[in-house]
Amino acid sequence: MTTVNLTEQDFAGTIQDNEFVLVDFWASWCGPCRMFAPTYEAASAQHPEIVFAKVDTEAEPGLAAAADIRSIPTLMAFREGVLVFSQPGALPAAGLEQVISAVQGLDMAEVHAQVAAQKPGQ
Fold first, then answer.
1. pLDDT over 60 at 32, yes or no
2. Which terminal residue of the chain has fewer beta carbons within 10 Å of its beta carbon, N or C?
3. Catalytic annotation, residues
4. d(CA 41, CA 63)
């Protein structure tokens, strides 16, 4: 599967409608972003069960601000609509595979319980 470009209009729906979504926040002028792009693209071909998305921070400044992006590239992982990983910096292929494996191995019932426990009034 190739990567998909997300905008403010389709970001939330993509996160909610898919079990596992990785999002790469990047910009064309960013050297580390350009170095990470082939690694990210290769991983998308190896993991067709995961949505590999990209957000161009220059084209989508509102989305980048809403996601509190302070450094690019930043990789975020969402599982069952929950942000479970966020880290700035370009990852090597092995590092990206570690993130994917860790996110796939999460006990999502426990994650959802922790999220519910953190909500005020619960």
1. yes
2. C
3. 30, 33
4. 22
Give dist(CA 33, CA 90) in Å, integer. Answer: 7
Residues 6+ apart with CB under 8 A from 24: 3, 33, 36, 37, 40, 52, 53, 54, 55, 73, 74, 75
The one-character DSSP state at 105 is T
Residue with tokens 């990983």: 85
Q: Are residues 94 and 109 in contact, defined by beta-carbon separation less than 8 angstroms?
A: no
Task: For residues 52-65, give the mean pLDDT.
Answer: 97
pTM summary value: 0.93
Please say if the pLDDT value at position 4 is more than 80: yes
How many beta carbons lie within 10 A of that of residue 2, not counting itself?
Answer: 8
